[in-house]
Amino acid sequence: MSDIFQEVEEDVRRERYEQLWKKYGNHMMAAAVVVIAAVAAYQGWKAYDLNQRQQISDRYQAAQALAVAGNAPQAETAFLELSKDRHSGYATLAKFHLAGAYLAQGKRDPAITLLRELTESSDPEISSAARLRLAWTEADARPRNEIEAILQPLMAADNPWRFAANEVLAYMDLKGGSRTQAESEYLKLSGELEASASLRQRAAAISQYLKANPPNGSTTAPSAAQGSQSK
User: Fold this and answer.
1) Distance between CA atoms of 51 and 151, rounded to whole angstroms?
2) What is the pTM of this model?
3) What are the C-alpha distances in Å from 181 to residues 119, 166, 177?
4) Which long-range contacts (CB under 8 A, 24 or more apart) does 22-25 make?
5) How far, in Å, CA of 66 to CA of 78, rounded?
6) Which among 167, 98, 114, 118 has a CA at the least distance from the CA of 139?
């Protein structure tokens, strides 16, 4: 008896589906076509986007090769084009390199302008990196208080950039003749376990050098360019 009821139920279900298909079949087919088209378009866009990103990556590496080879004018052109690209990640990196290409050619004004623009970024990492680069770039041209003002946002006790900022200020003190203060700052930085290993090593080396060469000896401060490149 249960088999009969099951057969009847299946017949009723089949009949209802047939009615639904007659009523909505065309709409369902159209919807299916739209879904298929949308999926195909999305896959096509993904392939296009991946290809574009690969091309940009290749252009970025080529621009870096120009810079490493010392071809600053061509590197400037390449990084300038990349800085205008809609892929903001590469555009931002290109701007940092573009500033370097400007400086390699003695074009300080556009380099400073570009770095100051980057300090206004809403991304704290970008802004912080730009401030540090700007401070090193201006270290030999500005008084300590102006460099300190540039670095001030990095000086908070919980800011991971504070050690790099203090390295710049230690350099400023050494360059400005405050040798004892600078030696103390470098010694302190050499023992900061939260600072990067490379920064601690630089600070320790400079501290040891200053200790081994008293003020009446020949003391040469590490250049601002060296500090900028070491970051």
Assistant:
1) 40
2) 0.71
3) 28, 12, 9
4) none
5) 9
6) 167
- Residue-level length of the chain: 231
Residues 36 and 25: their CA atoms lie apart, in Å, by 16
Outline where 69-123 has alpha helix (H): 72-83, 88-104, 108-119
Q: Is 66 exposed, middle or buried (0-12, 13-18, 19+ CB in 10 A)?
A: buried
Q: 72 is written with which tokens?
A: 């600053």
Structural domain boundaries of the chain? 12-106, 138-231
The sign of the torsion formed by the CA atoms of 104, 69, 77, 84 equals negative
Provide the b/e sequence for 87-107 (b: ≥16 CB within 10 Å).
beebebbbbbbbbbbbbbeee
User: How many other C-beta atoms lie within 10 A of the C-beta of residue 227?
Assistant: 21
Nearest to 154, CA basis, from 145, 165, 139: 165
Question: pLDDT tens across 187-220, in order?
Answer: 999 999 999 999 999 999 999 999 998 877 544 5
Distances (CA, A) of 117 to 34, 107, 120, 228: 45, 16, 6, 18
